[in-house]
Amino acid sequence: MPIPRTLKSHLDREHVHYDVLPHSQTFHALAVAQTLHVPGQEIAKVVIVKVKERFVTTVLPATEKVDVQRLRKLFGTHRVRLATEEEIAQLFPDCELGAMPPLGTLYGLPVYVDRALTNDEEIVFEGGTHSEAIRMRYWDFAALVFPVVAEFHRPPVATC
Q1: Can you identify the CATH homologous superfamily of domain 5-150?
Q2: What is the pTM of this model?
Q3: Burial of 30 per CB tally in 10 Å (0-12, 13-18, 19+)
C-alpha cells in the first residue's frame, strides 16, 4: 500500500521536500530504524492520547515511551489515556493501524512533540503504511503542524 493520497497531496501542496523510504514491512518504530539504518532517536513514533473528550497526537523518538503522568501535568487533568485501536482506526481511516504519520493536524488533531525530537535536523516517520517511511527536515515538519513542544517521555530510571 502506498502512502495515503491525503498525506502525499498535502505534502506536495505545501511544497515540502520529503523522501519516501520504502522498507520491508515492520510494525514497530525501532524496527523501522533498524531496517532503514537510522538511529532510533531520529525515528518519530506517534502515540494518540485522549485528553478529556478530545484526541491529541503526541510524537516522540522511537527509543522513548510516553509518560502519562507528565501528560496529565502538561494538560492539567487526570483524564488522559492512550487511545484504543478502534479509536485510532476511526481517526486515521486511510492509514494502516499503527502507521499513523505525525501530521495530526491533517486529521484534525493538535500535535505535541517531545523536546528530544527537536535536536535532529531530520525526522523520519511512518507514512501511513508499515512499508514506507517519510524523511524530511524537522523544521519543515514543524512548519506544517505548528507543534507544541514539551517534555513528556518517561525519564530514565536512576540506577544506584
Answers
A1: YbaK/aminoacyl-tRNA synthetase-associated domain (3.90.960.10)
A2: 0.89
A3: middle
